Amino acid sequence: KNCDVSRKEIGEPKKHLLKSTKELLQSCELVLLNSGVLQGYNTTGITGACKIAPVKMLRYELKENIIMKMISRRDFLKASAVVGATAAMTACGGSSSTSTAASSVAASSAAASSAAATNGSANIGVCIYQFADNFMTLYRSDLEEYLKDMGYAVTIVDGKNDQNTQTEQINTFLQQGVDVLVINPVQTTSAQTIVDTVKPSETPIVFINREPDKSVLDSYADKCCYVGADARQSGTYQGELILETETQGDINGDGKITYIMCKGDPENIDAQYRTEYSIKALTDAGKEVECLYEYLDNWDQTTAQQDVANALSQYGDKIEVVFCNNDAMALGALQSIQQANRTVGKDIYLVGVDALAEAVQDVLDGNMTGTVLNDDVGQATAAAEATKLYVEGSKVEQYYWVDYVKVTKDNASEYVK
Length: 417
Ligand code: BGC
Description:
By secondary structure, the protein is of the alpha/beta class.
């Protein structure tokens, strides 16, 4: 299309985004950002300088100078439509109903950030299923920061992995008259009860991280949405990480991939999909697989450490791959692997999900085969944006999805937090 395209490595988005964007805006007519990274920041001073079209694109894959190729035609047209719309409205206003979920959250950012000042503050109640969860700790601190940056009063409570505790907390928030609830349910099977409890007050709910059934969202239409990541993608990436190894997962060359699986909370769709799709990626590639055992480790490092220690002594060299539904469990598995004098990359493979700082370092050091970025920044950003849309009474989509990213030794340095 005869466009001059340049790319800019943003580095750590939280720190460098605004500066980098500003620099780009001085030389470009159009800046394409991945989904919504600008939200939650005070963009005054840069939004006026250029039409900003935050589009959903592959955030971390701007490796070569082929940005335009990586944005699908569909996304590009949508981006152009958003630019057109914002230009026409001069105030960078409306979200486009035809844009993807993520980009429509993103598209509303300019309007949202300017409106926060005029609308005044709002009270947001955030229920986290359990503070003692590594990934949710990152997520909640991002979320708190973004909501506060938007000018809201935020209260975050710890459900302590107990649905009764969380239900009481929700009732307290309702009594206090919060404007929006952000809920990371302890049990997704309780999501309908939560909605039924909240509904009479008409308080909007942003469900995060643990996906309720669609019927739950439908039962509170226009007042309830889900922000998350499609766990099938993370599972598939885990399988691909194994297929990309030198032996394609078959270390002993017997024609099949023999593995154990450390699973998260069985009720959680992330755990179910990661378990299923990591193996599906192998079988779809024509591989024969053998599962030695699936351990119920509830996302927990210590439990996984013990189970993997037992597995290693029971099955020994038979184990070629340890799949873990998250990094916390992978870190526990690694402790046992090292204690058993096994070496990742040589006589065993190990993969997790989340890209926790420690796990990314282990990938860099070769102690883990790979992990998958569970984008806490992207999800917290989208959750904060959806909250803002509710506060403003704007249209909110039913689902907001944030992409996972495969993390290997080659790109791990980009994810060191
Ligand atoms: C994360 C896990 C976390 C779980 C909590 C998952 O998406 O990968 O690390 O324990 O969410 O619900």
